[in-house]
Amino acid sequence: MAKVVSQFTGIVKKSIGQLISDMISDRLKAALAKDAETEKQREVSETAVKPEEDKSIETTAQELEGFMIVKSIIRKRIDAQRIVGRDTKTYYGILLDDNNRKPLCRLWLNGTKKYLGLFDDAKNETRHELQKLDDIFNHTEQLLKSVDAYEKEEKVPA
Length: 158
What we know:
By secondary structure, this protein is of the alpha+beta class. It is built from three helices and five strands; from the N terminus they run ααβββββα.
């Protein structure tokens, strides 16, 4: 009888060890699955919060060419990396320091008539009709004045 008990004692110990190992493994799998589900839900909610890019906005070759013309004019005064183009549904905006409050000009090239929108000191836009994109060069002085005005604003102590 003692021999049978000692034989079963080893088997029972192994079984209990395996049972405990299985229980721990199940708990870990459940915790990992819960973490994965939580992560997936967080990714879904982050995606829902981010606005989708508007697929209807298409930057045309004319807009890019106009941007490059304006950039070539303005880089006489400031570093070219500070000049940023931003396309919208109705116009192509060119900004200083990628800041909506510092518009340099707008290119209205999507209609039948082409315009260059320039801003005065009060940031009121005036549109100038363009026969061709090279007509932008005719407005070099006003474009440079816009840059100078923003540069003066930055130098004035608050």
